[in-house]
Amino acid sequence: MSSLSRKIFTSSAADEDLKRLLSLRVLSVAGQLLAILVAVYYLDISLPLAPLFYILAALLLWSLFSWLFLKNNHKYTVNGFFLQLLVDVASLSAVLYFTGGATNPFAWFLLLPHSVASTLLSRNYVWLMALITSVSYSLLVFYYQPLLHLDHHLEMGAGEHFKDHVIGMWLGFVSATILLAHFVAGMAESLRKRNELLLEMKERIFRDERIVALGTLATGAAHELGTPLGTMDIVAHELALEVQQSGDEAMHDKLTIIQGQIKRCKQVLLSITESATADKYETGQVVAVDEYIKAVIAQWRISHLGVGLQERVIGSGSKPTILSDVALTRALINILDNAAQASPEYVMIRLNWSDNDMLLDVVDRGAGMDPAQLAKLGSDLIGSTEKGLGIGVYLSKASIERIGGEVQWNNGERSGVRVTIKVPLTI
To answer: CA angle, 412 as apex, 350 and 312 as ends, to 5°?
Structure first.
């Protein structure tokens, strides 16, 4: 199954398409019943009513089962939808077999399932449906029960000229299936890809708007927190002087720690303000990838001294360089924060590189995460831990993708979570 088909049939649009198909099938059954009654009681054509009614009744029962399946909130995959079309082809072919085969003027209705497939499914399914409908029509040219008129008991369409006409109809049908498979399916797939790109663009715009709103909120908070932090710094400095004069070394050490934490808070607030307005080329510098990762770890280590971090560099050859982007640094620190919260005793960071990308793996030995939550991680403001770093994960993914990178969260083989990060060397 192609990735495009998966995307098409993982949304509510697939359910709507199936509802339309079931509605069309009910109308088709009603039309076939009406045509059979008109043929028998008005045109005096002899038809085997019992097998025809059995076929149509079975099709209605299958449609009822499909509707109940859909009503119970079950989702159809592309294979399930294709199966529905195959049922339509099989039932219509069976009806045509008992009603004159390719000589039946309604034989072209076999194109309808193929038309639906050409519009909604990927090329592989379209060509498969073209093959199946063409084979079905071809068999109906040679194998069928002829239509008999009750007045003269002659096979309708027994003349040589009419046989030539039927062969021409067969050629026309096969040609139409090929044209539908090639042109209509191609145009439909192009439209689906364009709609997919438009949807991704809308999601990116929406995400950027949320990031801007969060950045504005963070910058405002940084300005408002600056004054109380400054006051706390002054009071802590005065207390330190008083304690120093009194000779209380234990209290002096505690105040020194408090002053250090206040200084760190001020540095963080300053970095928030600067990163909201500064251009990356004004603040960043080109460094080797291993030196850049060491700098990120050193900055992260300040508040995680007790975490058991292991570093591995598995890249070979000459070490490439990368621009030390501020947003990327903050994103990597957020990811390391999550790993440290999951398993403070063990965090592994592996560095590798290719000709064009820097490759990072951040592995922890925590309890792991639910696969459904992993799939949504970073796509919305959801908490990734009990303490909740949903905003950090969301912003980390957005920052990495903004510079053309990729980030994925997966459960480890035995335990924990493995974060795979790919960042282009030329940001």
So the answer is: 15
Confidence of residue 7 (pLDDT cuts 50, 70, 90): very low
Q: How far apart are CA 27 and CA 31, in angstroms?
A: 6
Rounded-to-integer distance, Cα 32 and Cα 45, Å = 15
54-96, pLDDT tens digit by residue? 999 999 999 999 888 888 877 778 888 899 999 999 999 999 9
Domain limits, the chain: 3-205, 209-279, 282-424
By DSSP bridging, strand 286-288 and strand 417-424 are unpaired
H-helix or E-strand containing 75? none
Q: Which residues contact 263 (CB under 8 A, 6 or more apart)?
A: 233
The three-state secondary structure class of 190 is helix
Assign 109 a pLDDT band (cuts: 50, 70, 90): confident
Q: How far is CA 315 from the centre of its chain?
A: 31
Tokens found for residue 378: 């970073």
User: In terms of residues, how long is the chain?
Assistant: 427
- Full DSSP string of 240-297: HHHHHHHT-HHHHHHHHHHHHHHHHHHHHHHHHHHHHHS-HHHH--EEEHHHHHHHHH
Locate 401 and state its tokens. 């993708």
Query: Does 282 have pLDDT greater than 50?
Result: no
Q: How many CB atoms lie within 10 A of CB 355?
A: 7
The secondary element (H helix, E strand) that includes residue 405 is none
pLDDT tens-digit series, residues 170-218: 776 777 777 777 667 666 777 777 777 777 777 777 766 666 666 667 6
- Quick one: which H or E segment has residue 351? strand 347-353
Closest CA to 291 of 192, 222, 382, 358: 358
Q: Pairing mode, if any, of strands 347-353 and 309-313?
A: parallel
Q: What type of residue is 209?
A: E
- CATH level 3 topology of 282-424: Heat Shock Protein 90 (3.30.565)
- Structure-token match 């042109």, residue found: 183
- Alpha carbon 409 to chain centroid distance? 15
